[in-house]
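Task card 7
Instruction: Convert sequence to structure tokens.
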Amino acid sequence: MRRFLPVAALLLIACDTTPEWPASADAWKQYDNELIGISLQYPEQCSVDDEGHRVLIRCDGAPIISIAWTTEAGAKKNGLWPGHDPVGPVQLGGRMGELYRYTHHDGPFGMQTTSFVVPHRDKLLALEFRTTPDQLGPVAQHVLDSFAFTRPSGDAP
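Output:
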């Protein structure tokens, strides 16, 4: 029995809980965050958990999109992109930044993540997609294409 415990622990650590994305979206909702100064569209069947600086968009209860307006230290504390190497430059909402692909861990479970990180005001803005493929699917691509900053970079909240 004791020799099976390490194997069971390793299996739990290796669990990939990357959520399934909707194959398509018949209708879209608009999300606006005045504090951060952003907007985007998301599938109508999803819900939004808005904590101001941190937002999760969920489909069938699973987080498919994460928005974080934070410092690098805050992102590291929450297990986001810091500590991972960027895979290249990226543009988000007309701003240049870095693209990251990494596994985000919540406890022993991990979700594959594609993260678009750009400077925004005095912090960093990360738009993260919890998605398995290296390429965003059509629903995620629509969300990304709809993303916009609603206030200039230097404006206070």
